[in-house]
């Protein structure tokens, strides 16, 4: 997946992703768009008052994080887990705290909550 900001499949700011209530707290939800040959995949994580978004591309090898299970969080819902090689990332800032890419971070995908909906910021 292209991680650059000029990816033509990247949804425009203001695009509504879903209702806030569709994402449990703590919980996560993934989104995908295609434009020609380009694809954009991102996900949001909600935990208490925090709602953050990241590209669905692991900084280790570029694989999607959720894998076939469709899950982005650990069973404890306290960290983001990459299904590829089990890297763990902090929900708050995407920093890798365990696994094969120490010092790396998930690629931020800014989102916001407006009128009860999660939108691309
Ligand atoms: S691709 Fe995510 S840990 Fe390797």
UniProtKB/TrEMBL annotation:
<keyword id="KW-0479">Metal-binding</keyword>
<keyword id="KW-0001">2Fe-2S</keyword>
<keyword id="KW-0411">Iron-sulfur</keyword>
<dbReference type="InterPro" id="IPR017941">
    <property type="entry name" value="Rieske_2Fe-2S"/>
</dbReference>
<dbReference type="InterPro" id="IPR036922">
    <property type="entry name" value="Rieske_2Fe-2S_sf"/>
</dbReference>
<protein>
    <submittedName>
        <fullName>Rieske (2Fe-2S) protein</fullName>
    </submittedName>
</protein>
<dbReference type="Pfam" id="PF00355">
    <property type="entry name" value="Rieske"/>
</dbReference>
<keyword id="KW-0408">Iron</keyword>
<feature type="domain" description="Rieske">
    <location>
        <begin position="15"/>
        <end position="120"/>
    </location>
</feature>
């Amino acid at each position: 997946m292209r991680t650059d900001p000029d990816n033509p499949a990247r949804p425009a700011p203001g695009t509504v992703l879903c209702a806030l209530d569709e994402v449990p707290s703590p919980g996560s939800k993934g989104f995908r768009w295609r434009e020609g040959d380009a694809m954009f995949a991102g996900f949001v994580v909600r935990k208490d008052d925090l709602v953050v978004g990241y590209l669905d591309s692991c900084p280790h090898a570029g694989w999607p994080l959720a894998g076939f299970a469709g899950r982005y969080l650990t069973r404890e819902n306290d960290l983001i887990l990459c299904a590829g090689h089990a890297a763990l990332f902090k929900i708050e800032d995407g920093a890798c705290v365990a696994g094969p890419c120490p010092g790396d971070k998930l690629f931020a995908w800014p989102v916001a909550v407006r009128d009860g909906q999660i939108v691309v910021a």
